[in-house]
Amino acid sequence: MRMLVTGGAGFIGANFVHYTVRNHPQYEVTVLDALTYAGNEANLAPVAGDVRFVQGNILDAELVSRLVAESDVVVHFAAESHVDNSLAGPAPFVQTNIVGTYTILEAVREHGARLHHISTDEVFGDLALDAVDKFTEQTAYDPSSPYSASKAASDMLVRAWVRSYGITATLSNCANNYGPYQHVEKLIPRQITNILTGVRPKLYGAGVNVREWTHVDDHNAAVHLILDKGRNGETYLIGSGDERSNRQIIAAILAAMGQPEDAFDFVSDRPGHDLRYSNDSTKIRAELGWVPQYGDFTTGLAATVDWYRANEWWWKPQKAQTEARYAVLNR
User: Fold this and answer.
1) Given 34, 66, 90, 200, which residue has the most CB atoms within 10 angstroms?
2) Residues with pLDDT less than 70, the chain
3) pLDDT tens for residues 225-238?
4) CATH C-level class of 2-183+215-240+276-293
């Protein structure tokens, strides 16, 4: 089976490629990535001899068509994905996430490949902090940032192409991921690398916002189950069930790294900061048998801290530029 992974040099995509090489050797994997600041060919170094890498943009219709024509399966990770960046400059999010997904869909329609589209639970908006309800596959979309709005649009395009043109496609919306190779702009690696460089972690607002955290390997195991057994046109929500406030996340990182519990600083909150995300993953658990390996966040966090300690060569080149961007945002 020939598999094309778009965005396969990014955080989740690169981990997906690693997972595929380790656990699904029946796939011949080609990675397409534009190598923007969030994509890093070094993410693929451990599997460089096992995959083909193509540097290119999903907006390049001719290139995308050629690569899809050579593929049986397309797993579409490529996206602009940072909320703060989308607030500061939304144009790349519209181009990559919407027009880029359209380009993928047209190639899939032309060549008959099977598509899996990776999305986010942020398309649903947020939930009240004191609520017990969760997002489901039937939850209405209510995005609150340019990032989540662009991902919501891409999801709708995929569904429309299934219904209107009969393509073979599935979708998944996942909770926040964490693990190796995550860019240091994101919450968990930013705070881990702050501590490793002698800088106090930063906490938005009062730190009350709640997220459900899923280890990237658990997410990618779920994607493979959907590829193997998912029903055409269906959407599957992926989530560990482990919800924690941002303040609890900071506390867990400080504890894991032997720091005092008050060794962090408050910074100004993100505009329109979503309050709570929580996925009801009953469907993928019951229908496809998915069970997360890292059901306990602290276990996955400990492994993640160990990875960043051992791989300074990978994250240190990103750190100064990332913190310079946050300084401009006063966050």
Assistant:
1) 34
2) 329-331
3) 999 999 999 999 99
4) alpha beta
